[in-house]
Design brief:
The termini are close together. Helix 2 packs antiparallel against helix 3. The longest helix is centred in the middle third of the chain and has 61 residues. The protein is built from three helices and no strands. It has 129 residues and is mainly alpha-helical.
Length: 129
């Protein structure tokens, strides 16, 4: 029988991914504040070009927010799945022990009339394990 122990869940995304996401979000907030201060009074083509750059950078900020938020949500799902797997493994072990106990009980000497059904039960339990 092989021992399949579960490894502990990772602590979350790698540090460099969190730092990159945090820096992108800070740059996005800084760009928003700078644009509001600098371009609020201006009109014309300069404002349109700034909005085009701003909208392009928004995609990076949304992705960075998705990294930060998504990993936390997914970590909760992973933890729940690991807990369920541990419970299923313990249930499977309990069933195997019960089957082994039933199999051991069939080894006891019995009357000649009851030997054939016990042999069939023993064969079935052997296949089940």
């Amino acid at each position: 029988m092989t021992d399949t122990t579960l490894t502990p869940p990772p602590a979350g995304p790698p540090l460099h991914a969190l730092l990159t996401a945090g820096v992108l979000l800070l740059l996005y907030v800084g760009l928003t504040v700078a644009m509001m201060g600098y371009f609020a009074a201006s009109e014309g083509k300069l404002w349109e070009h700034a909005l085009l750059i701003y909208n392009g950078f928004t995609a990076f900020a949304v992705a960075a927010g998705g990294v930060l938020l998504g990993t936390q949500i997914q970590q909760a799902n992973v933890t729940a799945a690991r807990r369920e797997a541990t419970e299923a493994k313990s249930e499977a072990d309990r069933v195997k022990q019960a089957a082994r106990a039933a199999l051991a009980a069939t080894h006891a000497p019995s009357a000649a009339a009851g030997a054939a059904p016990l042999a069939d039960v023993r064969d079935l339990l052997t296949k089940a394990i």
